[in-house]
Design goal:
Elements (H helix, E strand, L loop, with lengths): L1 E8 L5 E9 L2 H37 L9 H29 L8 E4 H15 L3 E6 L4 E4 L1 H18 L5 E8 L3 E8 L6 H4 L22 H11 L4 E6 L3 E9 L3
Parallel strand pairs: 4-6
Antiparallel strand pairs: 1-2, 3-5, 6-7, 7-9, 8-9
The structure holds adenosine-5'-diphosphate.
The site of adenosine-5'-diphosphate has 20 residues, from helix 4 and helix 6.
Length: 255
Amino acid sequence: HAVKAVPYLNEGRELVKWFGSCTNIDVHKRALKQKDEFISIASHELKTPITSLMGALQLLDRMKNDPSPKMLPSLIERANKNVKKVNTLVGDLLNVSQLNAGQLHLNKARFKLGPMIFNCCEHILAEGRFEILIEGDDSLEAFADQTRIEQVVINFINNAVKYAPASKQIFIAYTAGQGFAKISVADKGPGIPKDKLQHLFDRYYRVDSAGSQYSGLGLGLYICAEIIQRHSGEIGVDSQLGEGSTFWFTLPCSS
Ligand code: ADP
């Protein structure tokens, strides 16, 4: 507890009593501790890909005079992968600070959902490890910030690739409801336990955070939820353990 008090003196300047207030600072302490923990996790998450990147660059440097460097393609791939990881982490951190400061501005315009979804799949299709099955109503349009909505869809797709690697297939649907469009991204991965589902969109939340074999800051879905909320849409997940997960969101729309 933090105590603030002032003395109350009588006319003879004798101390009669103390006037004071007592504030419970446990909440602040807990917030500070959470912040410290987060900084330590975030630094570790950043350090790992940077170390790997430095290793790749050192090897590349050593082979600069090698006339036929066999390891070149794999080292470039390793460097690229790690730079992308750092970029995603820093992007998430930036988004959260923009959200906290109320500075995530939306640039709304009308666009077709079909081509937007195709844009989001290109990077995974190029890799060739996953098949993506897309089904939807091609006339569907949304009035939204296209870049931000792509960010949400890409996050869902990347999570499916990351947490459901054995799924091999991702199913994307975009359908019309009454006054809204619904977009869903489904995988046939391990699914998520029922009691964890309600926390999934919370800031910093990770299922099995301590023992997780996957890296992450638990910010991706939180950012997605904030983006969709700012579009007056809804976001959610349906999941069955052992069968897979379907992440979805809605956007208000006229047709
Ligand atoms: P991060 O990936 O950084 O942990 P997210 O906010 O993107 O953060 O995800 C929160 C948690 O939700 C993840 O830690 C993971 O456990 C779980 N999750 C997300 N997508 C899936 C999925 N497709 N299948 C299983 N678990 C998932």
